[in-house]
Amino acid sequence: MILTKEGFRKMTLKEALEYPSKEELVSLSLSVIEEQDTKLNAFIYVNKEAGTGIPIGIKDNINIHGLPTTCASRILKNYVATFDATVIKKLRKAGFAFVGKTNLDEFAMGASTEYSAFGPTRNPHDLERVAGGSSGGSAAAVASGEVIISLGSDTGGSIRQPAAFCGVVGFKPTYGLVSRYGLVAFASSLDQIGPIAKTVEDAALLMNIIAGRDEHDATTVNREIDFTKFIGRKINGLKIAVAKQSFSEGVEDGIKEKTEEFVRFIEQEGNEVDVVDIPELKYVVATYYIIAPAEVSSNLARFDGVKYGLRLSGKSLQDLYKNTRGSGFGEEVRRRILIGTFTLSAAYYDAYFEKAQKVRRLIANKLNELFETYDFIVTPTSPVTAFKVGSVSDPMVYYLMDIFTIPANLAGLPAISIPFGKVGHLPIGIQLMGPRFSDAKLLGFADCLFRTTHSQEVR
Ligand code: GLN
């Protein structure tokens, strides 16, 4: 059985699991990476000694024992992980081969992978454009067929948005279903690891491997979920809310049109759709950009030039800290540390951080209330399609791109981005968001729609 490179590039996890020669898969993966990655830059590190198994790309903020974990930052440039993250342990046991660490925005802060100390990842659909972020490397690697599947992390959209930009599937599970042990913390109350895949079924198959209660992460929950339970079934008769804000100013016209087309499509499939105003969406970006930086200022305090990573000497210990952090962290990371330190300081805590926590609760309450009436909420994944590398300079413009993805993180909800055609030559993603622990049903519904649009068989 000899698989061609073309065949490998299109291969799903479902097929790979059944393929007898895992050795062949790894060597095909490494050769596709070698051929393509000088232009894509999806990988920060390629592991030529990956062994045999199903080739998977791992975002470079997840620790694999013996391999570098850089978080795309100068401050961790020479850091080699001393232990396996829980998800890595599980994948190892299930027969995966770690062919490389994928590129990201530094410490996962960003929406384009342009904030990587190793240069931006390019979009496989248009090399002049970004792959999205922060898990841009993981999305580009899957979309271009360098790997079968990959892992990303999602704090405010970092799995779903790059998946949308690259035309693949990205799933953020309910908070607490996947262990964060061994994931370099960005904003711990929002971070969640999840798959970026070629099909919804593949995402569900991977979830069955990586999910589960972990004694090393106290926020994990004890729930037995079969994520593939509704895969391959015809699911309809649902009540779906599409957020009115999907059609508001700031959303590209082409994306509005595709969202309308998607709404008609799910109606034709036998579901009922209402357009629902979610005024709280006005506040999600502001809320997130107070809470996330506050957690950053605390989580990134450990990178001090003493325990690990880069160290620049100084006349005093204070100087050593200043020199190391001042030159080790990039501009966006420093901006967030400063904002977070400011909003947590005694004089401003009530006005910013505490207020943001209250608004977070209001947003979560609103979404939970909607789920009393509706099964799922639909929005575009991103208000924009992949933009040109270097074309955005204002951080506010980046922040506003997260409007549709942030709510799921603030409320701990599962959400998936599935590809739904293109605007011009650029893929777009539609997001479906569900109540907490509706992951299996959400994947099932998304799978049904995905198969219909990609004309695969549905029972
Ligand atoms: N774009 C968002 C940010 O910059 C989300 C990042 C993420 O999910 N890791 O914070």
Question: How does this structure look, described?
Answer:
This protein is α/β, with parallel strands linked by helices. It has a domain at 5-239 and 379-458: Amidase signature (AS) enzymes. Helix content is 39%, strand content 16%. The protein has 15 helices and 13 strands. It has an eleven-stranded mixed sheet, sandwiched between helices. Strand 4 and strand 5 (126-130) form a beta hairpin. Helix 5 packs parallel to helix 6, helix 7 (200-210) runs antiparallel to helix 15 (439-453) and helix 9 crosses helix 12 (350-373). The longest helix is centred in the last third of the chain and has 24 residues, at 350-373. It starts with a helix and ends in a 6-residue tail after the last helix. The mean pLDDT is 97. The chain binds glutamine (GLN).
Topology of this structure?
Elements: H1 5-10, H2 13-18, H3 22-40, E1 43-46, E2 54-59, H4 86-93, E3 96-102, E4 122-123, E5 126-130, H5 136-143, E6 149-154, H6 160-166, E7 169-172, E8 192-197, H7 200-210, E9 239-243, H8 253-268, E10 272-276, H9 281-299, H10 317-328, H11 331-344, H12 350-373, E11 376-380, H13 395-400, H14 406-411, E12 415-423, E13 426-433, H15 439-453
Parallel strand pairs: 2-3, 2-6, 9-10, 9-11
Antiparallel strand pairs: 1-3, 4-5, 6-8, 7-8, 7-12, 11-13, 12-13
Residues 108-111, 134, 154-158, 186, 292, 402 line the site of glutamine (GLN).
